[in-house]
Amino acid sequence: MIKFLDLKKINDHYEPGISEAISRVLSSGWYLLGNEVKAFEQEYREFGTAYDLQVLEPAASFWVKMLHLHGSQVMFDLVADYPVDIINWHDRETFPSLSLGLTRFPGLVCGGVSQETLVYGTPDQVRGRDGA
């Protein structure tokens, strides 16, 4: 067998840190929304937000700006003050709901259809006309 990519060898260097982080999460009993998430969000505020805003800067003069948050653990509150008019996320699959999003963002919120319905649903299901 020819080894193409030895992920174990690559990751061995990081294993102690990864194991320690997993142990901290398991010991805390907070698998979601615990101290590790809070720490990550704080680090993102300090180091990531500036890059996000830099990417949005060229769109400043556009008549409308929509931000899409992808994934199942979106950091909605972290971007609620970004210079955009609309925030879109998979509200059927992750927090917050559309109604809660409206209370946390001064612009428009966009969602309402699950990814599964968009991909596999009939046109009437996507339009919400079938009662599903």
Give the key terms.
three-stranded parallel beta sheet; 8 helices
Q: Tell me the count of domains.
A: 1
Count of DSSP strands: 3
Tell me the Rg in angstroms: 20 Å
Q: What is the H-and-E element order? A: HHHHEHEHEHH
Shape: extended
Q: Provide the low-confidence segments as ranges.
A: none
Mean pLDDT: 89
From the N-terminal CA to the C-terminal CA, the straight-line distance is: 50 Å
How would you characterize this protein structure?
By secondary structure, the protein is mainly alpha-helical. It has one domain. It has helices at 7-12, 15-28, 35-47, 49-56, 76-79, 98-104, 115-120, 123-127; strands at 66-69, 86-89, 108-110. The chain has a 3-stranded parallel β-sheet with strand order 1-2-3, covered by helices on one side. Helix 5 links the parallel strand 1 and strand 2. The longest helix is centred in the N-terminal third of the chain and has 14 residues, at 15-28. It is extended. It starts with 6 loop residues before the first helix and ends in a 5-residue tail after the last helix. The relative contact order is 0.08.
Summarize the SSE layout with pairings.
Elements: H1 7-12, H2 15-28, H3 35-47, H4 49-56, E1 66-69, H5 76-79, E2 86-89, H6 98-104, E3 108-110, H7 115-120, H8 123-127
Parallel strand pairs: 1-2, 2-3
Compact summary:
With 132 residues, the chain is mainly alpha-helical.
